[in-house]
Description:
This protein is about 20% helix and about 35% strand.
Amino acid sequence: MKARHLISIIGLVLLPLCAGAKELPCYDGVNPLICQFLNRYINELLAWNRTDASLEQKMRDDKFIVLEGILDIVATFDEQTTFSLVRYDDKAYEAAWDRNGRCLLRVAFPIQYELLLGMSQQEVEQHLQEYIVSASPRIDMEPMNMSVDSVAPGVWKTHYSDYYQVESLNTDCYFVHDTRGGLRYLDDPAHLDYAVSNLFQQGLGRDLVMQVSQSVYGFKHLHYTVGLQQWLDYCQQEGLTSFVAVEEESDTHLKVLVIARCNDLGYNHILSVLVPRDFLTNPRAILNAKVNAFIPTHNVANLYEQYTNKPKKQRQWED
Length: 319
């Protein structure tokens, strides 16, 4: 499991444990949001007293399954109780609590961010701007100790990288040598495709304005402005992995596809961004982004096709 760096903002939407609730043994430092979910949800089940829906019906609706043991045994958990978490691809988690080699409780639940966050897509997508502007400043990675591969004369890229469905949509960052022979992030207009990847991965020290048009439930749109650095802060804080690709180019703009993936909770943000070609030299350059937020991983393919199933060629941009 990949550790998350900072999780305070999405954590704000999770309800705190009520008085008298049991704090479950969990890997808070590695899987904080999953641990918050387990604490919130299992204590909610233990306190369930609604008459309009049975406990069994709620668990069926949420696809939360007790595989071994009973929920009431949570009251006996102590310092000798150990926790384990197993992930099954992008489909489900299995959590278990043991003591002295004997399983006390084992449960399974889907990787479905609405369940894990306790909010519907309609609710959580309304908060995206708030999450972005409230993110804590990120920790920049220094390139000096990175493992790199040569991709062009004088140009290197990260050795350890990942891609999303096609190799051109990837997590690569690009570097050149500085005057002392060390690595620095490439920001050369002669390699705009590499530089724009760095822009959405690292920022290049530029706090450009992003004008966002976000699609939300009901075929509506939210319009707001955030800083590029705020977006990057948010991505690091929530453990999002960004995959970047240049889709099309014109005389004035690059059209860039960004998929920001939350692997732990199973959602993605999809951005289609128009980036002015002078973004390296013009501090007033404006990025125009169309955003589909909190898309479940299994639904990404449908939206992804509308961005990728089109010719990649030079053309004049339409207003």
